[in-house]
Write a structure and sequence with these properties.
With 154 residues, the chain is α+β, with helices and mostly antiparallel strands. The chain is 44% helix and 20% strand.
Length: 154
């Protein structure tokens, strides 16, 4: 079983809203084969609490415009890891330290990653830098950060 078209579209909308607020390491993970309660995880990183809040606000606004309201919202007060549950899609907006520590990509590495490219990045000339990551590069950078953290603990 794979994620539904509606879930994939909402996940892409959420990812783009996060990218518009300069979230980094944005990944979409198809967890539909492993979880019966949702189809896609969207994971995005903010560099500080204020940016996490801005990303969450943008995600909620764009999802609302697409006709979706979160069923549940967790972690808003702390601004470190905010979870927005839209039923078929769950958005994890994490502070960079939580992103490295919890390493959701590593936990769900057996699930397929869905492609996502920031629309603004697609319009940039070749060679221009970007602060928003794509799914291919971010998984590798997150794995490297997890390996560094694990090595520090030894």
């Amino acid at each position: 079983m794979t994620a539904t078209e509606e879930a994939t579209q909402l996940a892409t909308t959420i990812a783009q809203a996060a990218a518009d607020k300069l979230a980094t390491d944005i990944v979409l993970i198809d967890v539909s084969d492993r979880l019966a309660i949702t189809d896609v995880f969207v994971v995005a990183t903010g560099s500080n609490e204020r940016q996490v809040e801005a990303i969450v606000d943008a995600v909620e606004e764009q999802a609302r415009l697409a006709g979706s309201k979160p069923i549940r919202r967790e972690g808003q007060r702390d601004g470190r890891w905010v979870l927005l549950d839209y039923g078929d899609v769950v958005a994890h907006i994490q502070h960079s330290e939580e992103r490295v520590f919890y390493a959701l990509e590593r936990l769900w590495k057996d699930c397929p990653f869905l492609p996502f490219t920031d629309a603004a990045q697609a319009r940039r000339p070749v060679g221009a830098s970007s602060s928003a990551g794509s799914s291919a590069g971010s998984a590798a950078s997150s794995d490297a950060a997890v390996a560094d953290r694990d090595a520090d603990r030894r």
